[in-house]
Known about the structure:
With 290 residues, the protein is an alpha/beta fold. It has one domain: TIM Barrel, CATH 3.20.20. It is 40% helix and 13% strand. The protein has a seven-stranded parallel β-sheet. The protein has a two-stranded antiparallel ribbon with strand order 4-5. α5 packs parallel to α7. The radius of gyration is 18 Å and the shape is globular. The two termini are 18 Å apart. It binds zinc ion (ZN) (2 copies). The site of one zinc ion (ZN) has 5 residues, from loops.
Amino acid sequence: MAITSDWHIHTHCSCDSACMEFEALVKSAKECGITDFGVSDHYHTRLQEQDMATSRKDFEKTLEAHPELKGHFHFGIEATIISEWEIDKILKGDYVGIKEAPTYGVRIGGPKNAPVTLDFDDEFIEKYGIEYVVSGVHWPMYCDTDRDSLLKEYHRQYMYAATHPYTTILAHYMWYDSGLFTNLWEIKDAKNPFVDFSTVPVSMLDELKAALLECNTAFELNLGGIVLTPKLPDSFKDEYLGWVADLQKSGVVLSSGSDSHSAALCADDYEECDKIFKHYGIDSSKFFCL
Ligand SMILES: [Zn+2]
Ligand SMILES: [Zn+2]
C-alpha cells in the first residue's frame, strides 16, 4: 500500500521559509494520492499565536470550499519544546537586544538543561480547534556541546515530548540539523549527536519506545528531514530505518510526515519513501490516521 497520509505540513503561516498556500496544499495532496492529512505550522512560543490564528482561518476557509475534505483534512500544530526560562523572559518582554530572538525563543543565556515545557494550554487548544499536536525538539537548552552532553540533553527533551499529554506525534526523532539553531545560539561546534546511530545507547532507545507505547504517542517518519535528506549518511538511515521497523513490530504507531516547507506536496517524495519503507518491512497501511 502506498503512503496516503501526511501529518506534518507547513504553510505560509509558519514563521520560517515555508510558503504553501492552502489551495495548493489541497490540490497537490490530491495529485499525490494523499487522502488524509493536516497542517502543522510552527509554534515555538506565544509570539506565534497570530500565525495560529491565520492558519486556522485559512484552514476553515479551505474546508468550506472543499466540503468533501471534511473528516480527512485536519488542523494541527508543530509545537516546539521550549524552556520555562525563556517563556518567563518573553512574558516579561525581557529579550531586548538578543540578536535572533524572539522568533525562535531566547537561545542564549539560559540555565544549563533548563526545565522545558510547551507554551500553550487547554484554552489555546480549544480556541484554535487544534486536533493534534506534533511535538518537535528543535534545539538543546544551553547545555555543554560535547557529544555526550548533547545526547543526554536531546534524550531528555524527546522523553518530555513523547510523554506530554498534548503530544499526538513525536516529530523527527534524531533530527540532524541542530546546527541550524545552534548558529542562532552562537555555538558553532555543536554537531548532531545522533548521527552515528550505532553508538546511541540502547537504554535510550528502549526508554523512548516504552514511553511511546505507554502514552500511545505516534512516532513520526519524517520524510524530508530524515528519510530523504542527503545530509544524513546512508549508514545512518539503514540502521535507523531497521530500528523504526522494529518499533512498528513492537506496536508503536508510525506517522508519515513530509515536513514540507515547499509551495506544494511532491509525489516523487512519497513514491520514493514508499519504496524505502517496503524495503525495510515498514507497513504504511498501519500508519497513524485521525
Ligand atoms: Zn520540526
Ligand atoms: Zn516541521
